[in-house]
Each structure stands twice: as C-alpha cells, then as structure tokens.
Amino acid sequence: MMLTRVLRALERAMIAAGGIWVYVPPLPPLDGPGPGHPESVARGGPLSAAERDLDRALFGECE
Fold first, then answer.
1. How far is it, in rounded angstroms, from Cα 35 to Cα 18?
2. Which InterPro entries match (predicted)?
3. Cα–Cα distance between 15 and 9 in angstroms, integer?
C-alpha cells in the first residue's frame, strides 16, 4: 500500500515535470529591424542631413 502511494506520487511528479518542460530554440542575433519594419533603412547609401545630425549628436563625428 505504501509502495503504491509512492509510485503514484512519482508518476504524478514525472507527468508534471514533463508537462512543464518545453524546448525554446535560441533566437538568431538581431542585426537590425526586420524586413518591412518602418525603421529599416537602406544600407550603404549616403546619410541625409538629418541622419548626419543625429549621428553626430549620438556618436560624435560621422563617417
């Protein structure tokens, strides 16, 4: 009788542990806003005057 209780408790504990274990794969590192995002800009093009001012204000001298 005691063994039955222990085995049932163990069974419930294993079911609960299996139910809460969920594999979440690691996300790839973000390189910027995703495609179609309103804040994404073309890379490699010249900066506008406003972008140059913001770059200077945030990082100092721009390229």
1. 37
2. DUF6059
3. 10
CA–CA dist 47, 56 (Å, integer): 12
Structure tokens given for 43: 């890379």
Query: Tokens in use for 5?
Result: 């209780």
Per-residue pLDDT tens digits for 12-63: 998 888 777 767 678 777 777 777 776 656 667 788 888 888 888 988 765 5
Q: Is there a contact between 33 and 39 (Cβ–Cβ < 8 Å)? A: yes
Q: What is the 3-state secondary structure (H, E, C) of 12-53?
A: HHHHHHHHHCCCCCCCCCCCCCCCCCCCCCCCCCCCCHHHHH
